[in-house]
Amino acid sequence: MSIRVMTIFGTRPEAVKMAPLVQALNSRAGIEGLCCVTAQHREMLDSVLDIFGLKPDYDLNIMEPRQTLSSITSKCLLGMESVLEDAKPDLVLVHGDTSTTFAGALAAFYRQIPVGHVEAGLRTYDRYSPFPEEMNRSLVGRIAALHFCPTPANRDNLTREGIREGLFVTGNTVIDALKTTVRPDFRFSTPLLNQLDYEKQRIILVTCHRRENYGAPIAQIMTALRRLADTHPAAALVYPVHLSPVVREAAGRYLANHPRIHLIDPLDVAEMHNLMARCSFVMTDSGGLQEEAPALGKPVLVLRRETERPEAVAAGTVKLAGVEEEAVFRMGAELLEDPAAYAAMAHAANPYGDGQACRRIVDAIAWHFGLSPQPPAPFA
Ligand code: UD1
Ligand code: UDP
Question: Residue 352: nearest ligand to its CA?
């Protein structure tokens, strides 16, 4: 008799971070892996499924243009009902902090199916930043029976909140994913990325998509980015623009028609990871990029007021740039102009994992269900 473990995810970052776990579950004796995607994202999800060769067992296909938080949550919740009825998993795994994460965990709870939370315990303790992710992640922390915390600090957050059982420090599965994608001889299929001169030019990789940055913050960030390109002829910005219409409108308005600002479509994850490995530094409000770039030795300026990922800030590879034009411009200019400031940040740091997170999570699940005599040693 195998235990049935269902992974549920729906957006690009969840897919990148769950893909190696789906593979690890499928290859463990005694575990039957099942995969359900909500398709909260469609194209950006399918791209990740393709790269990792994943074929979901269930696909709720919920995405609509300019979807609201209520629409995502209610469609996921309703859709999951029949999936869980049909599949009858012994454990549901959700990832991180999206609306899919919250609705997937709640749907499992309503059927009294235990939930494992992958990437548990990250916190800003500001309920509106990141919004709505901070609340999603906290609520799933209350629902989950098993908490797979990337770092000891994430576990400590949960302990302080009164959660004492089912805690495992595993590292972040994104580092497992990164180990499969980055290659020195990688050839891009996006022609621009093969044409760039990564030695002579300072290539700045940019992404920006967070809901709390919509409006004035995104305008200030993008104005700062354009000033950086205007004032630094050796710099070129590569910005794969998220498919959200709100983000695409802002990028088009502030950053289009500049010879050294390349607005391109979202990259597949292998292209993205290899571009990150070759760029000079990263400016982003993404959660995943804050974890990936330090592992590749790339400085990151975070385009947010705060971060639930303080470990790489402490390690010195990440700085909070905020969302004010002047500060974003100044910090970008410093990395372009001051080799010592750049060198101080450009060292590889791996506070988020060692590439063994998926093995630890599968080992922890096996131990929880009595398939293995001991829990995994924690990631330190
Ligand atoms: C979601 C997550 C956020 C995560 C981000 C990763 C929530 C509340 N937010 O935000 O935590 O950081 O994904 O990218 O869960 N779209 C497409 N095709 C796609 C994907 C998106 O057209 O493949 C467009 C659609 O118009 C969609 C919009 O983007 O309505 C926004 O997508 P949504 O998932 O609602 O929000 P994100 O900002 O992507
Ligand atoms: N990513 C990608 N292509 C892109 C932009 C990002 O493959 O054009 C990857 C990135 O490397 C990381 C994940 O998507 O693994 C992060 O997703 P995103 O920034 O959308 O969400 P967040 O991490 O902020 O929730």
Answer: 2
CB of 119 sitting under 6 A from ligand 2: no
Q: How far is the CA of 163 from the centre of ligand 2 (A)?
A: 30
Rounded (10°) angle between helices 216-231 and 325-337 = 30
Residue 1: what pLDDT?
79
- Note whether 219 and 364 are same-domain residues: no
Is residue 319 located within the same domain as residue 358?
Answer: no
One domain for residues 242 and 163: no
The pLDDT of residue 348: 86
H helix count then E strand count, the chain: 16, 13
207 lines ligand 2 (CB under 6 A): yes
225 and 166 in one domain? no
Q: Does 12 sit in the ligand 2 pocket, CB within 6 Å?
A: yes
Do residues 331 and 360 share a domain?
Answer: no
Domain hosting 259: range is 191-346
* 296 Cβ inside 6 Å of ligand 2: no
Q: Looking at the domain assignment, is residue 237 inside a domain? A: yes
DSSP string spanning 115-172? EEEES-----S-TTSSTTHHHHHHHHHHH-SEEEESSHHHHHHHHHTT--SSEEE---
Query: If you measure from the C-alpha of residue 285 to the centroid of ligand 1, how many angstroms do you get, rounded to a whole number?
Result: 14
- Ligand number nearest CA of 182 is 2
342 and 357 inside one domain: no
Phi/psi of residue 117, nearest 5 degrees? -105, 110
> What CATH number is associated with residue 27?
3.40.50.2000
Looking at the structure of the chain, the number of domains it has is 2
- pTM equals 0.98
How remote is the CA of residue 22 from the centroid of ligand 1, in Å?
A: 22
Q: Which ligand 1 atom is nearest residue 133's CA?
A: 11
Indicate whether 146 and 15 sit together in one domain.
yes
Residues with a catalytic annotation lie at 97, 119, 133, 209, 211, 242
Find the ligand nearest to 265 CA: 2
Averaged pLDDT, groups of 10, the chain, 380 residues long:
96 98 97 98 98 98 97 98 98 98 98 98 97 98 98 98 98 97 95 96 98 96 98 98 97 98 98 98 98 97 97 97 98 98 94 97 98 96
Burial of 159 (0-12, 13-18, 19+ CB in 10 A): middle
Spatial separation of the C-alpha atoms in residues 276 and 348, rounded to whole Å:
13
Q: Is 132 in the pocket of ligand 2 (CB under 6 A)?
A: no
In this structure, the answer to whether residues 362 and 339 fall within a common structural domain is no
